[in-house]
Design goal:
Methane Monooxygenase Hydroxylase, Chain G, domain 1; mainly alpha; 505 residues; 65% helix; two-stranded antiparallel sheet
């Protein structure tokens, strides 16, 4: 950590001002601040910086006990200042012995900052590298700048696995279309458990980035499904009221039809986590009880889950990092259903398109003497002259045999590029089977795409020969030979990788 007491005091002072405002609003009275820590005193030029910083730290540790996560959440929602969120991030990340409450607070501060950027939409701006690998997100870069002078532990492969599982859980939540599912699958509890397993790595920019995006995505989905379910059961309850003399009827325990009809969704969603979970579970029970009161109404069939998300029973179990293992935490933590680590094949077409667009942009900007060698992150992509010309062709969008030919050349190059990228990723993660598996899956999917594209290229080749377009036929044949050669190589790589993994299993 950079030893700059003036900068440290500025951070602590910002947090103190926020805490003071929260507590004074709660107390409806003035907070008695220790002498020398008042806002006016902190601005004096002749103060002893080191002594003041130490005194402020001790004072804030006391205030930490008074400012709960719920109070901080309500205060930040009312204040809405990203600068306050940044100060809180720095403060909690710098604490020597952070506790569970500190992690909950920095969790919320990071999520608040993600939801409330200084410039609208700045976290959504995301490019695509030439080789189709998504670059570091803008929010993670911002977190690195905010926490740049904070000592950060080196991420281990086990932590990367937990983040991958958290991202997979977020993606799984996005596919759910019913409040029953999101509750029965314990999505929220599983996410909290994953966060607990992150241990001291919780404060790393990459970790906070994954947590914030998970929170925002899941929060939006959860609220949407909850409101939909709430409206549905309130509709049932009001219908029963209209049918007469059923207002006081008990549906589940002491919950009556009147209670359900008068329920306010915002009140439930704004409740603290533990209480809210009880209410959510109760609402699910009431929903089922109400549905049982509607003999002529059968629940709508749930949409089939996408094939790229395996059923939970087929997913690998979560690996608990050594730094997070303890008898106490294991006993206290809720049971966690395994999370699927699946390759998202649905995104491959967009990756191929991004690769092609990026290479085309490079080609149009590069000098004609060097554009046949395209620099990638970990290798140089060498193109044939016809392939390079295909990217620059102004008739690439034409509905003609020539247009079809250049589009196929571009697609072959994009598949070759993606194969090169995923092969490199597989090599880098060779010692960690779980982290390597998505890249092996990607290569398998790319092999299928190569097979399909190869068959289409064969058809184009025969059309070109029939029309005596021998120069284009030769170009297709050369690229097709490159694609088949690369596919054979990848098949051999995957075969060796699978044999080794089976031997170690």
């Amino acid at each position: 950590m950079v030893d700059d007491p003036k900068w440290e005091l500025a951070i602590l002072g910002s947090v103190h001002s926020f805490y003071q405002k929260l507590l004074e609003e709660s107390l409806a009275d003035q907070l008695l601040v220790p002498k020398g820590l008042e806002a006016d005193a902190l601005s004096q030029p002749d103060i002893d910086l080191n002594d003041t910083v130490e005194r402020m730290r001790r004072w804030l540790r006391l205030l930490d006990l008074a400012v709960t996560t719920a109070a901080l959440r309500h205060g930040m929602a009312a204040d809405g200042d990203p600068e306050v969120a940044e100060a809180l991030l720095r403060y909690y990340a710098r604490k020597e012995n952070p506790n569970a409450a500190d992690r909950d607070k920095i969790d919320f501060a990071a999520t608040f900052l993600y939801r409330n950027p200084r410039v609208a939409g700045q976290w959504e701006t995301r490019g695509m590298a030439l080789d189709g690998v998504v670059p570091m997100s803008p929010f993670e870069i911002a977190l690195m700048e905010i926490l740049g002078d904070t000592e950060s532990v080196q991420l281990q492969e086990e932590t990367a696995l937990l983040l991958y599982e958290l991202d997979s859980l977020r993606d799984q939540a996005e596919t759910l279309a019913d409040f029953d599912e999101i509750m029965e699958l314990a999505i929220v509890q599983r996410g909290r458990r994953l966060k607990q397993l992150l241990g001291d790595h919780f404060y790393h920019p990459a970790v906070l980035n994954s947590i914030a995006t998970y929170n925002v995505t899941l929060g939006s989905r959860f609220q949407s499904l909850f409101r939909s379910a709430a409206q549905e059961i309130k509709g049932f309850a009001k219908k029963m009221q209209r049918e007469g003399n059923k207002s006081g009827k008990r549906l589940d325990g002491d919950v009556t039809v009147d209670d359900v009809a008068a329920m306010e969704e915002d009140e439930v969603l704004g409740t603290e986590y533990n209480i809210a979970q009880e209410r959510f579970q109760r609402m699910l029970q009431v929903k089922k009880a109400l549905e049982s009161q509607q003999p002529n109404v059968s629940p709508a069939p749930r949409p089939a889950r996408p094939s790229y998300i395996p059923a939970p029973s087929s997913a690998p179990s979560i690996t608990v990092p050594a730094f997070a293992r303890s008898a106490t935490s294991a006993a206290a933590a809720p049971a966690l259903r395994p999370v699927a680590l699946a390759y998202e094949s649905k995104q491959e077409e967009s990756r191929l398109q991004s690769v092609a667009d990026s290479i085309r942009a490079f080609m149009l900007a590069a000098d004609s003497t060097v554009r046949e060698v395209v620099p990638m992150r970990s290798f140089n992509l060498v193109l044939t002259r016809p392939e390079a010309e295909a990217f620059c062709a102004d008739f690439i969008g034409e509905d003609s045999l020539s247009g079809e030919t250049v589009r196929m050349l571009v697609r072959i190059v994009a598949i070759l590029t993606r194969m090169g990228t995923e092969y490199d990723e597989l090599k880098q993660r060779n010692k960690s089977p779980t982290l390597a598996k998505p890249h092996a899956d990607a290569l398998r999917y790319l092999l299928e795409m190569a097979k399909t594209s190869g068959e289409e290229a064969d058809e184009i080749f025969f059309k070109l020969e029939q029309d005596s377009l021998t120069h284009l036929a030769a170009a297709i044949l050369e690229s097709l030979d490159r694609l088949r050669g690369r596919a054979e190589f990848i098949l051999d790589v995957l075969d060796r990788w699978e044999r080794r993994e089976n031997a170690q299993a």
